[in-house]
Amino acid sequence: MSVTPFSSRRTLVPTSFKSDIPPRSVKRSRNLDICAKLTTIQEGRKDVIGLSLNKPITIGRNPDRCSYVVADTSVSGVHCTIFAVRSQHGGVIVSCQDISKNGIFLNAQRIKKTSVILMDNDLLKLPDSITFMCTHVWKDSVPVDRFSVVDPPPQALRRSTHKHIGRYTVSGQCLGSGSFATVHLAFSSHRRCQVACKSITIKSKKDSEKELDQVMKETRILMGLNHPNINRIYDSEEDPDSKYFHIFLQLCTGGDLFTYINSYGERYERMEEQEVKYIMYQLLLGLKYLHSQHISHRDLKPENILLYAPGPYPRIQIADFGLARPKAWQETFNVCGTVSYLPPEGVLALDQKHLGYVGMPSDCWSAGIILYIMLSGSHPFDYDAPCDSRASRILHSVGSEYHSEESELLANCFRSEAQLKERIIDGQVEFHPSIWHDLHEAKTLILLLLIHDPLKRAKVADALKSLWITKDLNMLENAYRARITASISPAEKL
Hints:
- By secondary structure, the protein is an alpha+beta fold.
- It has twelve helices and 23 strands.
């Protein structure tokens, strides 16, 4: 069981970048928070565009709408937008959103009407026009794992390193890493887009057949899901020459909701109610679809909600279905997920093995916690957890040896978890007047989703009928159609 304290956040020390060559047609900025740069590759002149966090750059032919102007007729008025957002792992995600007629080329691969991640030293070309090289100034701090699906080993990986798996080309660029899986950036030639390749390692030969059968069973169920707010599984491949099972997922380039909420805390006091409502509306629609398929997620939290692309009022996708359960109406005695987001019945079942809980009401409780966090910037129960990321890593290392200093960290972590469990079981939620005085309808919805008794707790349909949602339903529906339906790329339609 993992404890993920919401209060822990990673901080970055910006690396300043100074260019002696001013970018062409780019407004000059004295900011020293440049996290990446785009350098033109052309004879006779080199332009450098500095990219800062949450300050996108538009490239195109229209000088009134673009921050970098390219006069070539093959270039659209607004051809593409370059973003930089914080990564869940402490670095940055640099991405390019193509909105042109002719598309773009990323490392000679044709991309159209979708968003792609730009890694360090990637080449971005506008058709029949200019080429940029992307350089990351802030380097990603993705932890190097014990294994990689691509040879040579991770410390020797170069941009050209890749491996062909089925119809996909998997690069050596690691997007994330865990105890039993890594996520690599991959390219789908038949969809003409980037995808995420999640490679799961089978622990031992003795258990491999049983594990593989279980993973394949869950994957087949999830491959049948198709909803704008569910991170889609495109394909799966078993690698006969290795110990890996590969799942190919829809790529999201905007980071995760946890990091997005924290970035608001750095720039503003907290998220605006209307944006929270738009995100929550999508989350409820995704859950409604998921529950209609009799599937519960069972690990719903901001870290597992991805932003399809950067920018305000984002399209969100529920992701990471490793703990999802079909036949979700049935009671289970196998408690899983993150303690901070477990309902009271789940917490009680942790220590009392004869007790069980049901996945669907658990998802609704988690949604209530997420709504509280988005509006207030804090967790209703896990508000003073001292357990830091280092202690979490130790806690997850079952059977590892650690020193007395680490023992103290773990002791604090366990004490925090015990307090957290008590608060969840008690169920008393505090609403500080300074934040909640004008959020009455939202507070009512949260209390309905955080009802102690799962039989009385609000279901997804009840939440969608709440006054907080229905009073702005026309606005939400129109925004959903305009922003989300329009953002569905050709690759998603395949």
